Amino acid sequence: MTDSDYKKQNNLDPQQLIEGHFLGHLSQEESDALEVMLLENSQLRDDFRRAATLDTALRDCAIEEDINKQVLSPVQPARTQGQSLYFRRAAVLAVGLSLMVLVGLALFFSMHQVQPALASVETITGKLLLVSDSEHLEISEGMKISDGTEIACPPGRNEAVIRLSDGSLFRVSSGTRVRFSKADRQYRLKLFSGFLTADVMRQPPSRPLLIETPTADVTVLGTELTLSLASEQTQLIVDEGRVEMKKRLNDERVVVATKQTAIASKDEPLLATSLEDLEVASLEIIRASYGAQATWIDVTDQVRSRATNSRLIPLDDFNNLAGDPLYLVVKTLKIEYRIDGKPGQAEFNEYTTPNRPKSPKRTKVILPIHNPTLNSKEELR
């Protein structure tokens, strides 16, 4: 637990506790709380040692001044007016110096208070990486995420849940790369690639949570949503609440409400459309595979993690599900499923059309109802 967490739970300020300790004003409960903070927070221990050094120096000066008064008073009972003026000036100087040190100490603590972690890693399935300019380091569960941290879920069976300090939850999946930051008490995410779902706590109207992608800006006041990013488009699905989406290309805006979706792409207008006709009572993904020719990989878990009670399944670049099984070959995603207990099968080419391999890749598929054959023609373009 950080000192900021302790402050939030117990209404205790670490700076005030340290100052109260050296002034002798702490209760037993406050002393115990400070001891716990110092045991759990190395930076706070460093700050405490610096404060102790300054406090010792001030006490030494006070003791020396008291000794001088006691020694000099009987030896020089008949001080001259000039000597008396000298000691008065020295006393004023000592008091001024002490005040300057105390002000400096207060400024030091105000500048060096330990800031709360922006987020923490709740759970990890597989692998999660911390991304920097020079290296990628593997992250473990429980790790704190500071302002400006960039994380990535490598392709494969990888998934993680990130909890912001306000309780908002974000689930990132394989192929996802995202940066977490906070400015002016406003949470900001930048999604570079992949797929995430979010359950966002209610945000202050003046400081909504912002999510930026290469093609869109998403403003969130508090909602459940899914965001999927491909090379040239961003898809937003709102399960509950209201979210504003803006195209970065031309500032076109739309408000996406509960059970609606919108896609920000280069060539299409930005519109919010209803998901109600795509809803089903139940959807079960039985099996899913991705590949071509004789090379196929199982992506059942990855497709299941993105499926809800809707025929629409948001998927980012298919190669992010579990990697590219066959380079330079157009591949197919095959899904076997049950909708409301009735079986169906469908397959989807990784590109918008089989004959245009350089066109933007898919970010979503719609499962046909009760289709016993493959090669579904009911797909979102």
Please provide a written account of the structure.
The structure is a single chain. With 381 residues, this protein is α+β, with helices and mostly antiparallel strands. The chain has three domains: 3-112, no CATH class; 119-274, Jelly Rolls (Sandwich), CATH 2.60.120.1440; 278-366, no CATH class. Helix content is 28%, strand content 34%. The protein contains seven helices and 23 strands. It has helices at residues 3-10, 14-23, 28-40, 42-75, 81-112, 300-306, 319-322, and strands at residues 119-125, 129-131, 136-138, 144-145, 149-152, 159-164, 169-173, 177-183, 186-199, 209-212, 216-220, 224-229, 233-240, 243-247, 253-256, 260-265, 272-274, 283-292, 295-298, 312-314, 332-339, 342-349, 364-366. It has a 17-stranded mixed beta sheet that branches. Helix 2 (14-23) packs parallel to helix 4 and helix 3 packs across helix 4. The longest helix is centred in the first third of the chain and has 34 residues, at 42-75. The relative contact order is 0.07. Mean pLDDT is 77; it is low at 352-362 and 370-381.
Describe the structure using short key phrases.
single chain, 381 residues, alpha+beta, Jelly Rolls, 3 domains, 17-stranded mixed β-sheet, 28% helix, disordered C terminus
Largest sheet: 17 strands, mixed
Mean pLDDT: 77
> Termini separation (Å)?
49 Å
Total of domains: 3
SS field, number of helical segments: 7
Give a short synopsis of this structure.
The protein folds into 3 domains: 3-112, no CATH class; 119-274, Jelly Rolls, CATH 2.60.120; 278-366, no CATH class.
